[in-house]
């Protein structure tokens, strides 16, 4: 993109740097502009009128915090996003007056963009080339990187829209830098340049058995697909899922792994879930949640006088582990709650939750009792990760406030 030329008589702001222009430095995304100055104050600083300079300014004092959420389609990303947005308060809505098929959701604090918008091939194009949407060749990672970087630097972008209704690429929409940008979709951690922009990353790892059960529930009941077509679509995606999507979990700071229960031998109904929250150690601004005693290995059955459990009950586990060569802490919940208000008993035994008041996890869960997974570990751990992201954001902002921007000019 071409650099813009600015004619101004204003003095330079202190959080801008100035250098002799060179063509390679001119980049709109870095907010570098050619600047002609006539200001006296600038002349005193050695900046002469009539000559051109390159000015690099931080677009705002507040840099956007970027969160990545990766998962296959139909694995609960939208549900997770609704829980996360709710932690910050306020409703998330598509951009006002924009494309009704926009995939973007904006709230006061967060903007969630769907990485499907970076499909470089539309539905017909993919069919012609014989590639799935999961294949990197069907996605524009250069543009994804440029635009996420620009937003992180405080610069608005015109982001493309992939229209899931028509299967076409629609005209772009304006995305302004929010406090928190969530990039959700198939590939937030695939490209190392994009990955490096993430302040925190999450992978929703839904086992094949559970994914199948959820897909049937949604695509048969809500979308009128046949059982055979659902099976065929899952099978067709599998090779690319395993090649390009699944490997991203090794980079995630938190993984929510969803497996069939171990409380019922040979269960094949897929209704009771064993959910593991795998938390990487040593991540900036993130201290893993633990049960009872940090670093110990613990198994806990909370059912009894304080927690009502029907068959097959509930079992929690906690302990240190390694995951793709990284040290992690894992909290696990197998089973489901009968009474959500009793969750406070479990909450009171978990530490490092980053809640703002006693019972906040329970309150959030009760608020969204109708969301899928509210009676099991998926809802519980999604809520906890939402609170950890709020905490991470607040820590990053506080750290920046303590570090004054150095005047570079
Ligand atoms: N925790 C859960 N427990 C049970 N079912 C769930 C859970 N999360 C999601 N589902 C089921 O999976 C479906 C898809 O969920 P959701 O829309 O959140 O996923 P998604 O990843 O955003 O999907 P897509 O990418 O296809 O839009 C839901 O309609 C629901 O049937
Ligand atoms: O894996 C997906 C991510 O959501 C979709 O299948 C992909 O975006 C293609 O979308 P559509 O099926 O609407 O053409």
For the residues shown, what is the average pLDDT? 86
The separation of the N and C termini measures 25 Å
Q: Structural class, please?
A: alpha/beta
Largest sheet descriptor: 10 strands, mixed
Query: What is the helix fraction of residues, given as a range?
Result: 25-40%
Tally of contiguous helical segments: 10
Q: Any idea what the shape is? A: globular
Residue share in β-strands = 15-25%
Rg, Å, rounded: 24 Å
* N-to-C order of helices and strands: EEEHEEHEEHHEEEHEHHEEEEEEHEHH
> Into how many domains do the coordinates divide?
2
Number of DSSP E strands: 18
The kinds of small molecule bound in this structure are: adenosine-5'-triphosphate, ribulose-5-phosphate
- Uncertain spans: 1-18, 20-47
Strand order of the largest sheet: 6-7-10-5-11-12-13-17-16-15
Explain what you see.
This protein folds into two domains: 58-203, P-loop containing nucleotide triphosphate hydrolases (Rossmann fold, 3-Layer(aba) Sandwich); 253-400, no CATH class. Helices cover 27% and strands 25% of the residues. It has ten helices and 18 strands. The strands form four sheets. It has a ten-stranded mixed beta sheet. A hairpin with a 3-residue loop joins strand 6 (105-106) and strand 7 (110-114). Helix 2 packs across helix 10. It is globular. The two termini are 25 Å apart. Bound molecules: adenosine-5'-triphosphate and ribulose-5-phosphate. The site of adenosine-5'-triphosphate has 14 residues, from helix 2 and helix 6.
